[in-house]
Write a structure and sequence with these properties.
Order of helices and strands: HEEEEHEEEEHEHEHHHHHHHEHEEEHH
Number of domains: 1
Largest sheet: 12 strands, mixed
Number of helices: 14
Distance between the termini: 70 Å
Helix content: 25-40%
CATH topology: Rossmann fold
Strand content: 15-25%
Radius of gyration: 23 Å
Structural class: alpha/beta
């Protein structure tokens, strides 16, 4: 009896602890450890509970537009993975601060301001999803395994609850953005929001469109196009490429095991590209722990985000997670959207604007594959292939379609480094591709 009483009391205390954290907690952050002085922008962090019992607590970072938050667009930004924290977007891609690239000396890594932040023209909501990503967590151990389609529904629920607590943004134009694996989630999420606006969920979300960088769309197709991409970039010989085309017949991933000639050619291809850093082929393929590696900042971010003072400043619920990792590659997850092309088609039929951009040195999701699925939509071209400019320099190339979709390449970069690609902010990209979402 005594043991039962103690067990019940402990369970009650645990429940009180977690629920006292609040299912919809939000805090203003004015200072961040590692950044010198007060933040020159408005940052809010918090949790939104989703699910029947709100057992899933999704963590977000929200930064108001530095221009006119009352009228500027609101952008939800999702990172890829699945299982990569949205802090990747905030610190590496389009946020107002970044990790200073310097050799780790045992002290807290530094943050510095950027000049290229998309928050100069829009408010951005960075979301850690699915549950178990970044600082998002579950109150119970019995959570359904995340999936592509399930995440579209969960994020939709998150948005309605977040906007319910931030009703001043209900009328702002709303967009969804992300890169890499979020290319599977975002088109489904856009469709989910669109349906919800008509069928179930009030007030409606003022959805206008979406933006994707080197998006995963059809996994096998994306991977198959690495071979012609490698040939175009002189990573494999003409002879090897012609032999692969003839013998493998365009299928380099799910090769028939009886086609031994193709398997041998694929092996030769892999020998040629094994030491290529596929996300950005211009950079060395080295360990993240090397200060000379471009991804060394990932290690610095890990040290920063695991610091107790940082988690206090971000108002992370103490004890809610173990060690923070930027990307949880071992997360249990169901990949149930095999292709996001049907979602793109439905979204364009519903009239939503989209911008698909590709860093042209990203071999992980090569632009050739992205162009292929865009062609499969069979929409007429309304603005043919042309360079877009930054001043008097070519920043990349672009083409627009009748379904309100624009495709753009970013010269000599990967999908996630638009801060360097545009030498400024997202306004340049929007201006040159004539996508009116963020341009006044």
């Amino acid at each position: 009896m005594a043991n039962d009483y103690v067990s019940s009391l402990l369970l009650l205390l645990i429940l009180i602890f977690f629920y006292s954290q609040g299912t919809h907690s939000a805090s203003t952050v004015k200072f961040l450890p590692g950044f010198d002085g007060p933040l020159p922008f408005e940052l809010e962090t918090g949790y939104i509970g989703v699910g029947e019992e709100e057992e899933v607590q999704l963590f977000y970072y929200f930064i108001k537009s530095e221009r006119n938050p009352e009228e500027d667009p609101l952008l939800l930004w999702l990172s890829g993975g699945p299982g990569c924290s949205s802090i990747s977007g905030l610190l590496y891609e389009n946020g107002p601060v970044t990790v200073k690239h310097e050799v780790y000396n045992g002290t807290l890594p530094s943050l510095v301001s950027t000049t290229y932040s998309w928050t100069k023209i829009s408010s951005i909501l960075y979301l850690d999803q699915p549950v178990g990503t970044g600082f998002s967590y579950s109150r119970t151990p019995f959570v359904n395994k995340p999936s592509d389609s399930g995440e579209a529904k969960r994020i939709h629920e998150f948005l309605h609850k977040w906007l319910g607590r931030h009703q001043e943004f209900l009328s702002n134009p709303f967009y969804v953005g992300g890169d890499s694996y979020s290319g599977k989630i975002i088109p489904a999420l856009v469709q989910e929001i669109s349906k919800g606006n008509y069928l179930c969920c009030k007030p409606p979300i003022n959805l206008q469109g979406y933006v994707l960088g080197n998006p995963s769309t059809e996994s096998d197709t994306d991977k198959n196009y690495r071979i012609p991409y490698a040939h175009g970039m002189a990573l494999i010989s003409d002879e090897l490429y012609e032999s692969m085309k003839r013998i493998c017949k365009g299928e380099y991933i799910n090769v028939d095991p009886r086609n031994t000639k193709c398997l041998k050619l694929v092996e030769e291809y892999e020998k040629c590209t094994d030491r290529i850093n596929k996300p950005l082929i211009l950079t060395p393929d080295c360990e993240e722990t090397s200060p000379d590696c471009y991804d060394y900042r990932g290690l610095l971010t890990t040290y920063w985000a695991n610091d107790e003072s940082v988690q206090r400043a971000l108002h992370v619920n103490k004890g809610s997670i173990g060690e923070w990792v930027r990307c949880d590659w071992d997360m249990p997850y169901t990949h149930d959207i095999k292709s996001s092309v049907p979602y793109h088609m439905n979204n364009s039929i519903d009239g939503y604007t989209s911008l698909i951009f590709s860093g042209d040195h990203d071999m992980e999701v090569p632009f050739l594959g992205t162009q292929a699925w865009i062609r499969s939509l069979n929409y007429s071209i309304i603005d043919d292939w042309r360079p877009w400019m930054i001043g008097d320099q070519i920043g990349g190339y672009t083409r627009s379609y009748a379904n309100k979709m624009t495709f753009a390449t970013i010269k000599a970069r990967r999908r996630t480094h638009t801060r360097v690609q545009t030498r400024g902010d997202f306004h340049h990209v929007q201006k040159v591709v004539q996508w009116s979402a963020f341009v006044t």
